[in-house]
Amino acid sequence: MKIGIVVNPFAGLGGAVALKGSDGRDIVLEALSRGATPKAQLRAAVAMKAAFGDNRPSDEVTLVTASGDMGEKVLQSLNLPCQSVYQCQPDSTADDTKAVINRFVELNVDLIVFAGGDGTARDVLDVLTTKTLTSIPVIGIPAGVKIHSAVYASTPTQAGELIGLIVSGKAMSLQEAQVMDLDEQAFRQGRVSSRCYGYLTVPVDDSRMQLIKQGGLNHEDLIVQDIAAEVIENMEDDVYYLVGSGSTTAEIMHQLDLKNTLLGVDIICNRELVASDVDEKSIVRLTEGHQAKMVITIIGGQGHLFGRGNQQLSSTVIRQVGRENIIIIATGEKIQSLDKRPMISDTGDTQLDRQLAGLYPVVTGYQHKTLYRLE
C-alpha cells in the first residue's frame, strides 16, 4: 500500500488573528505579521501519531510526501520512514500542493492524506478532476479556518484512526463527499457565500468523518430570539462576555443593539461593546484579571464547538476563561441535526479537548436547557 501525505503549512494561519482564512499569499503575510503561528504540521503530527502510534509501518506500507514543511518534517519527527517525492520552497503555495498531488497520481498511490482547509481540498479536487481520478480515496486532516467540506475527518485524531484502520487491512466502504468552499473576501465582510465545487471519494465512517455544515432554518427565528433573551437576562455585571461567531449568537448582539461581527468574536461587558472582531492576543489581554465567560454555538450537522471558524477562542483563551464559564446555545433542531452524535472540541490541544469532554447544559430556549455531551 502506498499513501501520499501532504501538509499545507499555512492552513489555518489566519484563524487566531481574526483574518477568517489564509487563502492567498497576501493574507498569509498579513497573518504572519500579526504574530500568527503555523499549526497545520502539529495537527498532521497528531493524526500520524494516531495512525501508527510508536510503531513503524510494515514493509507493505510506503509513505510518500513532499520535502520540508509540506510533510517530510512531520513524518521524520515521528520516526516514520518516508520518501520525499517533491522539493518544495519555504514559501509554498497552492501550486505546490497541486504539484505534490500530481506526483502522487504519477506514483499510483492508494490513498491521499492532506492537512489543510477547504482551499486545500479544492486544490486536491482540481488535480484529481483534471486527471479524471476522483475515485482515489482521500482523507482530510482538519487544519484550516474554513472546513465545511465533508472530505475531512472531525478531528486530526479521528483522521489518524481512519488511516490506521485502512493500513491494518480493515475493509471500508467508500462514498463521494462534497468539497465546499467559502468566498473569503465575502466572509471577512460578514457574508456567507459557499458552494459545492465537486466530489472526492472518502471512507464511509459517520463517527469519524464530518458532515457538511448545515445552516439555520427560517422558522427557527423565534426560538433564536428566545435563546438570546435567556442569555441576556442572565448576564452578570462586570463580567466580560466573549460572543462567538454565528447567526444564533448574533441575535444576542442584535437585541442589545450592539455592532456584531457575524463571523468573528466580540467582547461585551455590562451590555456595552468592549471590542469588536478580536483576535486571540486581544482576548487574552482584554480579559486578563477579569471574570469572563464565552457564549458559543455548535455548527449544525457537524457539532463542532471549537476549531471551526473560531480559532480566536484558542486553548489559551479557553483555559483563561475556564470550562465552567462556557455558555453553549443552540436550537433544538440544530441539536437534532447531530442525530445523537456528540458535540466536538477540536482546539488542537488534545489534553484540553479531553478536559473539556462531558455533559453540558445547552440553552435551547427561554428558561429551557438541554443536557448534551461533548467529546
Please tell me about this protein's structure.
The protein contains 13 helices and 16 strands. A hairpin with a 2-residue loop joins strand 9 (266-269) and strand 10. Strands 10-9-8-11-13-15-16 form a seven-stranded mixed beta sheet, sandwiched between helices. Strands 3-2-1-4-5 form a five-stranded parallel beta sheet, sandwiched between helices. Strands 6-7 form a two-stranded antiparallel sheet. It has helices at 25-33, 40-52, 72-77, 94-106, 118-130, 156-167, 184-188, 221-233, 247-255, 280-287, 315-321, 332-336, 350-356; strands spanning 2-7, 62-66, 83-86, 111-116, 138-142, 174-182, 194-203, 240-243, 266-269, 272-275, 292-297, 304-306, 326-329, 344-345, 358-365, 368-374. The protein folds into two domains: 2-203; 218-374. Helix content is 32%, strand content 23%. The radius of gyration is 20 Å and the shape is elongated. The chain has 375 residues and is of the alpha/beta class.
How are the SSEs ordered, and which strands pair?
Layout: E1 2-7, H1 25-33, H2 40-52, E2 62-66, H3 72-77, E3 83-86, H4 94-106, E4 111-116, H5 118-130, E5 138-142, H6 156-167, E6 174-182, H7 184-188, E7 194-203, H8 221-233, E8 240-243, H9 247-255, E9 266-269, E10 272-275, H10 280-287, E11 292-297, E12 304-306, H11 315-321, E13 326-329, H12 332-336, E14 344-345, H13 350-356, E15 358-365, E16 368-374
Parallel strand pairs: 1-2, 1-4, 2-3, 4-5, 8-11, 11-13, 12-14, 13-15
Antiparallel strand pairs: 6-7, 8-9, 9-10, 15-16
Helix pairs in contact: 2-6, 4-5, 8-9, 10-11
Write a short abstract of this structure.
The protein is 32% helix and 23% strand. The protein is of the alpha/beta class and 375 residues long. A 7-stranded mixed sheet has the order 10-9-8-11-13-15-16, with helices on both faces.
